Amino acid sequence: MGQFPEHLLRTVWERQRFASSHLRTPDGQRITILSPGTFNSDGGPDFLNARVRIGNVTYRGDVELHTDAAEWKAHNHDRDPHYNRVILHVVMTADAVAPPTHTVSHRPVPLLVLHPYLDEQVRSAWMTDDKNEPDERIKCYGLNAEVPAELISRWISSLAVERIELKVRRLEERLKQLVDERRSVVREPYPRYYGNPDEIPPPHKEYARKDFAERQLWEQLLYEGIMEGMGYSKNREPFLALAQSMSLRILRQHPLSDTTTMMALLFGAAGLLPSTRVVKEKEGRSYILPLRRRWKELQRSFKSRRLNEGDWLFFRLRPTNFPTARLATICFLLPSLFDESGFRRLIGILKNEVLSSRERLNMLQAMFHFEPDSYWSRHYHFKSIAGKSGIRLGTARVNEIIVNSIIPIVLLYARVFKDQRARSNARTILSVLPPLEENSITRLMNAQLLERKMTMSSALKQQGTIHLFKFYCSPIRCSECKIGQQVFAAITDK
């Protein structure tokens, strides 16, 4: 019997394949699992938001799984703030004299050794070391070979439009929130009603085109969209939260070209400005010192939410995608993207009838060109050692920001202000833009549906394919899918 496989341990915990009514910590405290939590496929603890009663106290937090208790310290979890919310360390085996588990905040973490409580089927799987995990499959896989390529292409094209529309609607709601925030600052008088309470009309927010006329609203929307795009898939939420707390209005109280102040504000509010004591390089300490001094001056007046280091994920990311690298990138882009004419320049590119679609795309991509300073041209992180390369923003990342942020914002602008030219040109760019980087969804759909029938030749086709999987294949809405209707109708007819 070898080491307990990690995938099997995860299944055991998720499905509670053990004698859960008799669980005890090594020191004899009763453990009751109220909820095992939700599996976390990213960095950090294995299961999030679990509920566990230990003794007479109920805890809500995260659960970390290991085959052996010694792995907690071996994996440096005792020095990682992402593990501060762990309420239970679940292991298969533990050395009786092993030191207790602690978080970086020095809080002891209760231990559960599962080995004595396993059921017989799990023990059998352990003995045979069965590592075959089921592959994810769409329901029509193996049945869709006869579906015409033309039908698939038409359906995916219509879903691409649906996906872009969802992005536009989301932005529209955020734009209205920004308008409401400005209204609350003005403090318009509240209407008073007298008489029968039943006759008081329900509150109803109405918006006129003039409400959206302020350029600052659109610039904040663009700033949030670009920041969210900088977050890659793992850090979108903290980047968006940072953009909303450290708004463009706050940044503009200082010159955007003052990179030291921009970095002090953004890294400080992000909780990613380390103490000089933890930075190994002399160059790094010299770079951080003025940022920390500037943040100390400015943070007194900053009343919004601050993030901390534990909100950010670095696990399984290329160094160029580290949140520190992306945040530094934004600091160098601020002056060109958000100067007084930045948003007008963006709309001008989309409205210019002299330009071809390819030229418009090239000009949008050029807006994201920047030159880092000597420090960031050789670093990705304040704690890293200088290397041969540093921060950069590749074409693939710029294209993702164009697809997911810029084009939807321009489409919303065109809708609000009835600008057909901007709308038409924005949609055309999606057709000429090549597909974005391949991901697990596009690989799965290409292998199980599209292969030898249709190529994702553009970002628009790729968006439609992703939408098909997320909104139809994954939730098994086959009866509402044009492909599913044909596949399963044919099976019924037989």
Number of alpha- plus pi-helical segments: 17
The N- and C-terminal alpha carbons lie at a distance of: 49 Å
Structural class: alpha/beta
The quaternary organization reads as single chain
Proportion of helical residues: 40-55%
Low-confidence stretches: 127-135, 186-197
Task: Write up this protein.
The structure is a single chain. Strands 1, 2, 3, 4, 5 and 6 form a six-stranded mixed sheet that branches. Helix content is 46%, strand content 8%. It has two domains: 123 residues, no CATH class; 257 residues, no CATH class. The radius of gyration is 27 Å and the shape is globular. The protein has 17 helices and six strands. About 4% of the residues have low confidence. It has 494 residues and is α/β, with parallel strands linked by helices. Helix 4 packs across helix 13, helix 8 packs across helix 10 and helix 12 crosses helix 14.
Features:
494 residues; alpha/beta; 17 helices; 8% strand
